[in-house]
Design goal:
Helices cover 24% and strands 33% of the residues. It is built from three helices and seven strands; from the N terminus they run E-E-E-E-H-E-E-E-H-H. Strands 1, 2, 3, 4, 5, 6 and 7 form a seven-stranded mixed sheet that branches. Strand 2 and strand 3 (32-33) form a beta hairpin. Helix 2 packs antiparallel against helix 3.
């Protein structure tokens, strides 16, 4: 298996009233997060990565009309958790994460990838931020109200 590219997307899924969808990792039960995923190729456009990961992890299709991914033009650089470092080339310890969001109707169908996730839950954004294991994910959720106003 080739090494993961240390560049990824984070997609915060939310409703108009700031309910946030979190998904529980299959490889680490109890670890809740938004949609995340690495680029498949170094030249894969970030918007394509975000749309692909959104679909793979939740079944949600960003059609560009009703379901529109929004690039926050915000990147976070963080230290890769040691438990997942083996997925990257030797010596790679940091990842650059690009933040996106997508507003969806509350009744949208969610289809999890059972290989990746066990459960999902909708919750108010402050509760969702508290439940995330990832600091950058929690911070993005906390910024959601300002991002919605800015759109």
């Amino acid at each position: 298996m080739p090494y993961k590219i240390p560049e990824s997307v984070l997609v915060v899924i939310h409703t108009a009233d700031l309910q946030v969808l979190l998904i529980e990792r299959a490889d680490k039960p109890g670890y809740w997060q938004s949609v995340t995923g690495s680029l498949d190729a170094v030249d894969e456009p970030l918007l394509e990565t975000a749309a692909r990961e959104l679909f793979e992890e939740t079944g949600i299709v960003a059609d560009g009309e009703r379901i529109v991914l929004r690039d926050w033009h915000l990147s976070n650089i963080y230290t890769i958790y040691p438990v997942w470092r083996h997925r990257y080339a030797p010596g790679v310890t940091e990842n650059t994460e690009h933040v996106f969001s997508v507003e969806v109707p509350r009744d949208i169908a969610i289809t999890l990838s059972p290989r990746e996730h066990l459960n999902y839950a909708w919750m108010p954004h402050l509760e969702a931020a508290d439940k995330c294991f990832s600091f950058s994910n929690a911070e993005a959720i906390l910024q959601l109200p300002q991002q919605i106003i800015a759109k």
